[in-house]
């Protein structure tokens, strides 16, 4: 497995470009997303892990979800919950989905 990069340029209001980015993120194991606003467009660089098995989320509806409260010890879960709140604030400020900042799995690690 190796780290790969994909870039996206999204002009304001371009729903098709937004969906292309979201579809890419849903279909890959994303390591990090770097975003920047310049020349009146959002520029995203997505680092992803090639060779990683990623389930199609549309086919995993109904699949068991991880309950991190059961998996993590109490102090670690408290930190996890704080990190989720921070992620929510960051994603809101940047106007990106929360999973584009960090996934729950990354927060738990």
What are the SSEs and their pairings?
Blueprint: E1 2-10, H1 15-26, E2 30-38, E3 41-50, H2 68-71, H3 74-94, H4 98-101, H5 104-108
Antiparallel strand pairs: 1-3, 2-3
Keywords:
about 40% helix; three-stranded antiparallel sheet; globular; 2 domains; alpha+beta; 3 strands; about 110 residues; single chain
Overall geometry: globular
Number of strands: 3
Task: Tell me roughly what share of residues is in helical segments.
Answer: 40-55%
Looking across the biggest beta sheet, what order are the strands in? 1-3-2
Given helix and strand content, the structural type is alpha+beta
As a whole number of angstroms, the C-alpha radius of gyration is 15 Å
The ordered string of helix (H) and strand (E) elements is EHEEHHHH
Rounded mean pLDDT is 84
Q: List the domain count as a whole number.
A: 2
| Oligomerization category of the chains in this entry | single chain
Residue ranges: pLDDT <50 for 5 or more in a row? 56-62
Query: Count of helical segments?
Result: 5
Percent range for β-strand residues = 25-35%
Gap between N and C termini, in Å?
A: 19 Å
Descriptive report:
The protein is an alpha+beta fold. It folds into two domains: 52 residues; 47 residues. It is 42% helix and 26% strand. It has a three-stranded antiparallel β-sheet with strand order 1-3-2, covered by helices on one side. Strand 2 and strand 3 form a beta hairpin. The radius of gyration is 15 Å and the shape is globular.
């Amino acid at each position: 497995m190796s780290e790969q990069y994909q870039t996206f340029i999204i002009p304001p209001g371009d729903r098709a470009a937004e969906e292309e980015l979201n579809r890419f993120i849903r279909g890959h194991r994303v390591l990090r997303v770097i975003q920047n606003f310049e020349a009146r467009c959002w520029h995203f660089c997505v680092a992803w892990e090639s060779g990683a098995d990623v389930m199609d989320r549309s086919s995993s509806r109904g699949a068991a979800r991880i309950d991190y409260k059961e998996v993590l010890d109490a102090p670690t879960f408290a930190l996890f919950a704080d990190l989720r709140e921070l992620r929510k604030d960051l994603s809101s400020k940047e106007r990106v989905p929360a999973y584009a900042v960090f996934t729950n799995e990354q927060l738990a690690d």
